[in-house]
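Hi L.,

As promised, Tautomerase:
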Amino acid sequence: MIVIYGIKEHLNPIKAQLSEVIHGCMQAVLGMPEDKRAHRFIPMDAEDFYYPGGRTPAYTAIEINMMQGRAPETQKALIKELFNRIESVVGISPVDIEVTIKEQPAHCWGFRGMTGDEARDLKYSVNV
């Protein structure tokens, strides 16, 4: 699951485009199938969204929650691909993008009535 935070006046107009770009990166780097998009957008009022100095109101925070198993090189490749594609397609500078990958063991995930370590029918590999 991916959660995207930003100031609503900047985030709302680009949600669909940003979702396409993020999922394209997930497919290209992690091999995620087309139907495995799980994005949650949290558009916020400016007075509720504090961001670091040197950033603009386009500052966007992206939290990627995933099962453990991806190599550090794969995770770094995903982050760099997100910076590149978001800048080239959406127009947000890398200085205004923050990406955090949060990993949890497979047994901490629950979907389709089972835990992640019980799933045997995933259409993608976690260990990449």
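The first strand starts at residue 2 and ends at 7.

Thanks again for sending the construct details.

K.
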